[in-house]
Amino acid sequence: MLGLGLGLTGCRTTGAATKPDGTPNKQVVAFDPVTVTADLELDRLNDEELFAGGTSAFAANDFKQAARYFGRLVDFHPNSPHRRQALYNAGLAHQRLKEWDDAYGRFSELAEPAKGQGDALDASFRVAETLYHLERYDEATAMLATLAAREDLSAGRRIEAQVQQGICQVESGHTDDAEATLRKALTAYDALPDKAEVEDYFPAQAHFFVGEIYRLHYEAVKLEASRGSDGLAQDLNYKAELLLSAQGHYLRSIRVGNGYWATAAGAQIGALYENLYEHMVNSPTPPELNAEEAGVYRQELRKKIRVLLTKSINIYERTLEAAERIGSQNAFVDRTRESLEKVKSLLLADADSETEGPSVTMPASNAGPHQP
Q1: Contact of 214 with 338, CB cutoff 8 Å
Q2: φ, ψ for residue 287 (rounded to 5)?
Q3: Are the C-beta atoms of 162 and 181 separated by less than 8 Å?
Q4: Nearest to 266 by CA among 312, 206, 202, 324
Q5: H or E stretch at 30
Q6: What local confidence, expressed as pLDDT, does residue 35 receive?
Q7: According to the model, what pLDDT value does residue 19 have?
Q8: Cα(202)–Cα(358) distance, integer angstroms
Q9: What is the largest CA-CA distance in the chain?
Q10: Beta carbons within 8 Å of 165's beta carbon, 6+ residues apart
Q11: Distance between CA atoms of 275 and 281, rounded to whole angstroms?
Q12: Cα separation of 12 and 29, whole Å?
């Protein structure tokens, strides 16, 4: 790529038109500098050569070069028989590079969400994905709703659109709408006589994000000591119920059998127990308890905390074992390993600092969640 500085815009003149004696004065014309970018290397190639170069670069995973070749063809050879395919491939190359604005520009020229087939249909799904990454969730939701409503599409594509629509609704904060959309997708999947019509990725993803909705509800419940021991126990019980609801949907995701989402769901379950542990260990003592009662309260709390840590360790270990069996390696696996070591350290530290004390029941709380 070569930047050429050419004076093409911003013209202005300086100096008077004539001298005092009436003779014409010399005028000075000045231009603001502007940079025009030209790709001289590709300028000499025809559309066939550009398409071949882009195809070769894409196959070699050189997506920067692929986007360059395909983009040149699209922009400078409007009548090429390869233009439509080059347009789609340019979008794919930008997508692989996470250049979401550029990918959106290419895919949106092809997309026809209401009636498109082939590349036009695939590009519509791609546009929705780029909108998601650009955090334009409402636009993505609208496009995916259009796709999900098309009776001419296969069950697999409609369910895919519904699941992605639900995820965009989660991200935009419309969790009630999201849950309804995701459950609708799962109902459609469950009704299929042949589940092979749909990739297991999408029902597993749907269950995972229903779990995410309940995780968000769980996180919204705050443990406030100012509510007293009874209020704190109620909040803790409600928080535990939401944890179990989230866990149930994560377990359903695992049971679908998709490796990626099974690993992700296992990691989230372990993280929930770890999070509840942190909330409990850092929650203030109810203010109405005297010093002796507060000591007993903390001892009983620590017993429940050890249960949470043990559950978290078991879930993390099972998740890693499953990931090893299926050969899964992703960010969730890495995070699970790190979390496992952290929780083991916490449990070891708790055991080292344990002191014996009187055993009584915590005030009105049965908040230790159990694995179903």
Answers
A1: no
A2: -65, -20
A3: yes
A4: 312
A5: strand 28-32
A6: 46
A7: 52
A8: 51
A9: 112
A10: 140, 141, 144, 145, 148, 181
A11: 10
A12: 6
Q: Which of 48-52, 163-167, 233-237, 304-308 bottoms out in mean pLDDT, i.e. has the lowest? A: 304-308
Judged by DSSP in three states, 37 sits in: strand
Strand partners, 32: 9
pTM strictly above 0.70: yes
Q: Model confidence at 319, in pLDDT bands (50, 70, 90)?
A: confident
* pLDDT tens-digit readout, 188-242: 999 999 988 899 999 999 999 999 999 999 999 887 767 777 787 788 888 888 9
Cβ-count burial of 190 within 10 angstroms (0-12 exposed, 13-18 middle, 19+ buried)? exposed
Q: Rg of the Cα trace of the chain?
A: 30
- Token pair for 131: 């909108």
Q: Which two tokens stand for residue 187?
A: 């109902």
Q: What's the N-to-C CA distance of the chain in angstroms?
A: 61
CB 267 within 8 Å of CB 335: yes
The amino acid at 181: T
Higher pLDDT: 274 or 330? It is: 274
- pLDDT score of 362 more than 80: no
Confidence check: pLDDT of 364 > 70: no
Between CA 270 and CA 222 the distance in angstroms is 20
Tell me which residue has tokens 């952290």: 342
| Contact (Cβ atoms closer than 8 angstroms) between residue 100 and residue 134 | yes
Is 110 within 8 Å of 142 (Cβ atoms)?
A: no
Burial 191-207 (b: 16+ CB within 10 A, else e): eeeeeeebebebbbbbb
Reading the block at residue 80, the tokens are 């090429």
Which of 12-16, 21-25, 52-56 is the least confident region? 12-16
